[in-house]
Write a structure and sequence with these properties.
By secondary structure, the protein is α+β, with helices and mostly antiparallel strands. It has four helices and four strands. The mean pLDDT is 97.
Length: 94
Amino acid sequence: MLFAIHALDKPDALPVRLANYDAHRAYLESDGLPVTIVMSGPLVSDDGATMIGSLFLVEAPGRAEAEAFNRADPFAAAGVWDKVTITGFFRRKG
């Protein structure tokens, strides 16, 4: 099943995000993740440049694996995200 993971940063979290960015990228590239990442990237503010969150589309056997993937992300451990929403997703196009 596909899951959309929408994670908004805490206010003023950008310095913590940047300090943990390499670890986050390494995690996403690592073997043995409980999900398959279909797409991912940072959410940005209206200026089109300032990172304010993360968006993932993942394929997982179930919600538990999507939650485990999110919990293990270095951004989660560093407390970057303020609110994370994990929602099932039906692909209609693309």
